[in-house]
Amino acid sequence: MRIGDWFKKDLKIKIISLLLALFFWLYVSNVTNPFKTVTIYNVPVTVINQDYLTQNNYVLKNAPRTYIDVTVRGRQDVVEKVKSTDFEVTVDYSQISSVNDKKLRISEPVCLNKDVTIESYSPTEIDIQLTRNKTGMFDVDLVKNITMKSGYVLLKTTVTPDKVPLVIDESMYNNIGSVKAYLELTDLDRDVTKQVQCKVYDKSGKEIESLENMVPNVSVSVETARQVPVSLVTKGRLAANYVETQRLINPDKVLVRGTPAALEKLNEIKTEPVDIDNIDGDFTGTVPLIIPEGIKLINSPGEIKVSIGVEKLVIRSFEFTRDEISILNAKNDGTLVYEIATDNVTLQFRGRQTEVDGISRDSLRPAVDVSGLAEGTHRLAVNINMPGKGNLVQRAYVDVKVTKIPETLPEGNTQAENPETAP
C-alpha cells in the first residue's frame, strides 16, 4: 500500500482522533497545571548613571523608591517559582533634564524566566525632588578678640586659607552673606597658631547652623612683637657752664621679636655711645642701635636720629642794701641792739636765660638770723627764699654788730646804792 493511500484511508477517523487527543491534553494540562497570574512584590530597581547627578551639580532632596511590584502570568508550576530577584528593572538618572523634573520613568521589567509574561508593573515612575548645587569660594573674615600682655603689641594675623569653598543648594548659596572665623586670646606675649572653625551667615547676619560642618577649619597665625624704649647713651661732659636743654630721639621706641625668654629679659635697646665731651653747641646726628643677640628689629631702622640741645648758662645779680635785709629772732627785751654793718650785699644766680629771667627780686626776701648772739660783731650768712629755678652761685655774708644797751637809773636816784655805806 502506498503511503499516500494510507493517509487517505479513514481520514476522518484520524482527524477526529487527533482532535480528541488534543482536547484531552488541554483538559489535563488546565486542570493539573493551569495558567496563573501572580504579583511579585518588592522587585528591586537598579539605578544607572547615578554619577550624572554630581556631573551636573544635581542633588536629590528625597530618597526615591527603589522597588516595584510586577504582575506575571504563566503556568502554575512556573510562576510559583518566580522570585523578586528574577527581574531586571532600572531607572536611569540621565533622564533628568531640569532641576524642575519631578518624575523618572522606570524601565519595563525583564523576567529572567522566559516561560512567563509580564502583564503589568507598578509604579511605572518614581518621584524625585531635585535641587542644584552651586560651588563658590568665600572670603574668610577674621573676627579677633585679642588682649596683649603689657609691653607687647599685635603685629599681624594671617588666615590660611583666606578663602573657603562651599558646594551647597543654589537657593541657599545665593543667601550667603559672609563666612567668619572667631579667634579669642588673652594676655598674649608670643606667636601662636590656632585652628579655628568657620561659621556661615546669611545676608541678614543670622548664622546658618546647617552649614557649620560643611566649611573647613582655617589656620590663624598670630605674630607678636615687644615694644621697648630706646635709651640714648652719651659719654663725656659738656663744656664748662653749658647745660643740656633737651634730648630728642626718633624713634623713642622700637618693635623687636625673639624667643619668649629673650624678650622677657629685655627692658630697653641702647644706642652706641654719643661723645658730647666739651661741646658748647647743639648736636644732631644718627646713632646706631645695639641689638642684643637673639633679638630682631621689626619695622624699625637700625639707627635713630638724635638731637641734643645745648645752652650756655648765664648769671643774674641782685643787690640789696642793709636796710632791705631783715633781722630775724632778735631779743625783744630791750637789752641788745642789732645793726647790719655791711652796706650792701649781692646775690648771684646761675642758670638758663629763661630760668634766671623768671626770678623775682621781691621773692628773695634776704634775712639774717641773730638768735643766740652776744654783744660784738658777727659774720652771718644771708638767708633767702630760694627760687624754684636757677642756682645760687655762692652764699652772701654780712657783718652784724650787736650792742648792749646801758641800764638806766630810776628817776630821782643819781647814784647807785652802795651796800657797804647803807645805814
> Could you name the ranges where pLDDT drops below 50 across 5 or more consecutive residues?
414-423
Largest sheet: 6 strands, mixed
Radius of gyration, in angstroms, nearest whole number: 59 Å
Helix content: 10-25%
Number of helices: 7
The number of E-state strands comes to 33
Principal-axis shape = rod-shaped
User: Kindly state the mean pLDDT as a whole number?
Assistant: 88
Percentage beta strand:
over 45%
Q: How far apart, in Å, are the first and last alpha carbons?
A: 231 Å
Derived from helix and strand composition plus strand pairing, the structural class reads mainly beta
Quick rundown:
The chain is mainly β. Helix content is 12%, strand content 47%.
Please tell me about this protein's structure.
It is a single chain. With 423 residues, the protein is mostly beta strands. Helix content is 12%, strand content 47%. The protein contains seven helices and 33 strands. The protein has helices at residues 3-8, 11-32, 51-55, 76-79, 170-173, 260-265, 353-357, and strands spanning 35-44, 46-48, 58-60, 67-75, 87-88, 90-92, 103-105, 110-111, 117-122, 125-127, 130-148, 152-160, 163-169, 176-188, 192-196, 198-202, 218-231, 234-235, 242-250, 253-258, 269-270, 274-275, 283-288, 295-298, 303-312, 314-321, 326-328, 336-340, 344-351, 367-369, 376-381, 391-392, 397-404. Strands 12, 15, 17, 20, 21 and 24 form a six-stranded mixed β-sheet that branches. Strands 3, 11, 13, 14 and 16 form a five-stranded mixed β-sheet that branches. The chain has a three-stranded antiparallel β-sheet with strand order 1-4-9. The radius of gyration is 59 Å and the shape is rod-shaped. Residues 414-423 have low confidence and may be disordered.
